[in-house]
Design a protein that fits this description.
homodimer, about 210 residues, mainly alpha, Arc Repressor Mutant, subunit A, DNA-binding
Chain lengths: ~210, ~210
DNA sequence: ACAGCGCCCTTGACAGTGTCAAGCCCCAGA
DNA sequence: TCTGGGGCTTGACACTGTCAAGGGCGCTGT
């Protein structure tokens, strides 16, 4: 397999974070694990941030695909919103290394990495699309304001959905909710799933169930 | 002003984060700004994490007090929930250095710092108390389950409130929502305030308005 | 056949970091 | 006057990311 060092470096980085948290991330240790010299990674990437940026890009793509796939399996608006939320927390908990990097702008500044930003935007567009479809089916005539986005009800709902599942994911990963379910990964996922259902009832009380 | 170096170090640390983000935090730079040698801070603290832990402790205390004060000013259950949410996002945006450290377990592991953990727990207890009072006033007879906390409706609501405002705060601080309001601090706060109102309507649709 | 080139990677050095280990200065108390 | 120790400094170490240079090796053109 040619050009394998590049992917080895990315994989080793993710593994390192999963093993010891993002605080344990060191490119020299990554190189060590990949069995190369400490400068080998920088043959493929200009600097450390670019390596992390590539991981973030993969993360957003993965989240996008997981979301699209889960949402495609259901029919009703309410189920779509729920599937979207489930995809988010499952992604966060199962691929926590990716998730953490994706929301740490001091490690990866998306403005310096247009391709990664594009991947993030694609994911966001997908979410907007799903929310629009879910609520559009519920309120077929709802107009889509575009002058002032802050007033756009769709954007508002997107931000509401996103904040809830994002906050839940972040608090779970930080261990802030451990006392309410014990800290094992499976317990976390179960708690997350239950809470997503609750959230969906709250955020989408009027959505058709089927 | 005796013993002032200790507080100078804490202040300089916070200032450094506010200036350049948590990535720019360096204890040697802190010492430089305080005008002392690079080891002076470690006369008062055993290690870097303990310095940050002290800041986190102050942060939780500040959040606790801001929340209590804002909630005390209002009467109705709905207004209490809203005041609590506002206190949270305002704290996060106005004291972002504290907020970021408080939710970064790789920098400060609360299990290693019992006093800080106690401050965090006090804040959490306050929130539980507020939610209990707000919903208790709305549903006077509601029982308080305690065997399995995950099933406790109060805890559920607390986590719901918390997730929403925490996710909103985190996304705002990460700049993920900038495109929908422009990135200035004041615009962020305004957007946050508007969204908290929306959230309160969602999470507490049935609460008395006065 | 062979010189030259470019890709892939290594080696070495540098400034920066947090932390360990001493040591220095000065003042209170005996 | 001597002693002890609180408050800080100095120096060293291992570690980090990054800059600069160089080495080996397969392909290509002549």
């Amino acid at each position: 397999m040619t050009d394998d060092l590049k992917t080895s470096i990315l994989q080793a980085s993710v593994q390192l974070i999963e093993d010891g948290g993002v605080g344990a991330l060191s490119m020299r240790e990554v190189a060590r694990r990949a069995g190369v010299s400490h400068q080998a990674p920088y043959h493929y990437f200009p600097d450390r941030e670019s390596i992390l940026s590539e991981i973030v890009r993969e993360g957003f793509t993965l989240l996008h695909d997981m979301t699209a796939e889960k949402v495609a399996r259901v029919e009703s608006p309410a189920a779509m919103i729920e599937a979207m939320g489930l995809a988010y927390v499952e992604f966060a908990l199962r691929h926590s290394a990716y998730f953490q990097l994706m929301f740490r702008s001091e490690l990866v500044n998306l403005n310096r990495h247009p391709e990664t930003k594009a991947a993030a935007d694609r994911t966001f567009e997908l979410v907007i699309d799903i929310v629009t479809r879910a609520y559009g089916a519920a309120e077929p005539g709802a107009p889509r304001a575009s002058a002032e986005d802050g007033e756009d009800p769709v954007i508002r709902r997107v931000i509401a959905c996103w904040s809830m599942v994002h906050g839940l994911s972040h608090l779970l990963l930080e261990g802030k909710l451990d006392r309410h379910h014990g800290g094992s990964p499976e317990a976390r996922l179960d708690a997350a799933r239950a809470l997503v259902s609750v959230y969906v009832e709250m955020i989408a009380p009027g959505l058709p169930q089927r």
